[in-house]
What we know:
Strand content: under 5%
Bound molecules: zinc ion
Oligomer: single chain
Number of helices: 16
Structural class: mainly alpha
Shape: globular
Amino acid sequence: MYVGGNHATRSFTNCLGSINMVAWAEHYKNANWPMVIYLGYCHALAFLSLFYFSTAKWQTLVFTLVISQFSGLGITGGVHRLWAHKSYKAHGIVRFFLMLCNAMANQGTIYHWSRDHRVHHKFSETDADPHNAMRGMFFAHMGWLLVKKDAKVIEAGRKINCDDLLEDWVVVLQKKLNPWGNLFMSFMFPMLVSTYFWQEHWAHGILIAGFFRYVFILHCTWLVNSAAHFYGQTPYDPKINPTENAIVAFFAMGEGWHNWHHVFPYDYAASEFGVASQYNPTKLFIDGCAKLGLVTDRKRALNAWEAKKAKMPNAPVSELKAKSA
Length: 325
Ligand SMILES: [Zn+2]
Ligand SMILES: [Zn+2]
């Protein structure tokens, strides 16, 4: 596999920009306190859940693992690849299912997530990027949620066109039920299922399948904005910072192939190769739905990459297409 571009990691000092005391004082002044308190509580409850694991029923642990995957899919296959990038088309049944999964991940509405993400791609690593990685690793990971948005981010968000999203009844339904629909799916639903079906204690249900899973998936998602903008290779465009990062791909269900994704954001696979060589359960899900006739118009960027590669100096030998699914 071609891993040229030899973009090393961002400088260590840059990564630690977030522990600069001046920057911290600035963050304190601009803190988004409701979010700081909300995320603080969620993390505290996720930590508390660690003391409940040993007394949880095995069904609760299996259920937590299963709905972790579904929550992740609601972000990767749902709001990211389907709604934000329109990289494939899905039947209403798939869209409704992905909306429920997305609600379980509870990262704001599909509409707002997509809008911020479109801004991220359009103004990547500038002041208008909601999680501008130039402001340090911590800011890109979760710090951006803890402070008020930069005026340039707000302005860019207003200008970006998201009208297409409001034409989808699934997106509108979730937006109308916000925030109660998402809060119910993320915390009450796991608790109700585990207490009703295998008589788990409610505290185990809400803490492990609710808060622990929620916070874990948050960090998996955030790794794409932080680690995959700092560590890894840049074979598709050495001039940008987003990287190919297998560890992030593992935690984020195939979203770590981020150099490819920033160069070809419309590619539904969000990676060059097939699932056999690049971990990508999200692609597998989309392909499975396509086999059932529930997904169509899967866009790929393999031809665009071949054309781009032909113009690149030190271009890799063309062995790529054959390997791709
Ligand atoms: Zn990115
Ligand atoms: Zn994207």
